[in-house]
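Data deposition worksheet. Section B asks for the primary sequence of the deposited chain exactly as it was used as input, without tags or linkers unless they were present during the calculation. Section C holds the resulting structure in token form. Section D is free text for depositor observations; keep each observation to a single sentence. Incomplete worksheets are returned to the depositor.
Section A, Depositor: J.P.
Section B:
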Amino acid sequence: MTDSPRGTPVQLTDLRRSYGGVAALDGLTLHMEPGEFVALLGPSGCGKTTALRCLAGLEDPDSGTIVVGGNDLTKVPTNKRDMGMVFQAYSLFPHMTARQNVEFGLELRGRDKAARRARAAEMLDLVGLVEHADKFAHQMSGGQQQRVALARALAIEPQVLLLDEPLSALDAKVRTQLRDEIRRIQLEVGTTTLFVTHDQEEALAVADRVGVMSVGKLEQLAPPAELYSAPKTPFVADFVGLTNRIRGEVAGETAHLLGGSVPLLPGSSSGPSALVLVRPEGVRIAHDDGGTASVVSASFLGGHGRVIARIPDGTLVTVQVPNTDVTTFRPGDRVTLSPRGDAALAVAD
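Section C:
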């Protein structure tokens, strides 16, 4: 493989962008390390795609700065920013073969035919499509077309790779395969990458850090495990993974609920009464004829099972259980629930 950029630092600072008085970006600051893979996650309209488009130069921020590799690109046109882009729509040129699509950006940059052909072969090999080099888009599956789009984006050796919902149009199995392939390639090439998605599993699976956005603001930016186990805000706790809201009593840095207690994360409500945000795997469930909770449903989900039980105040609590235990729980069974003791966030009741 030819020498590729091993990562360029990216600094988005206090970006603001409004449409008709509605803020799409409300002071977004995001600093990416060289070679880092950052995923922006959030619901539709949260500003994640606007952030990517501002970095790409497809939109201009109302204020704020965009610095890449130490150079201020805030006012630099798109074609001068040296970005590689892959979008949800494959956007391949239908009259070109896979090889010609990959060569296109190189031709625009004045690379001679031999150099273009060699680089295209290298990139198609990287994405596992050498044998499809002479196929047109209509002769390839959606997953193959998206691999070609990725190879085309990487062929120009961009400073930054931008991925905007690149897997959304694919079926579940292909999406998972290509997600893992994108991460493998990114690690191999070392290009700083910004990945925009609404799919939390995708974000948590591939990124070095995940940023959760809401109404134009970055709620939290952290490694996937930290984001999941130590959410800083109720929005993050609710958006990333399943979260139970169980009424409890707060005493100092501890919450008492379900007959047990859990340590509280920073930023928790001081109580004394609060809703404690507890993950399904943070709750134990046990058969108990004298238990105060009752099973509502039990589901087999492949690698694990899920039981939903109703506690005396009417709250439904979701509990993750081993898949082998699912069939032991039936609707109406009396059970006892208790916290495992994992740290949790408490919010005002």
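Section D:
Confidence is low (pLDDT under 50) at residues 1-5.
The chain has eight helices and 20 strands.
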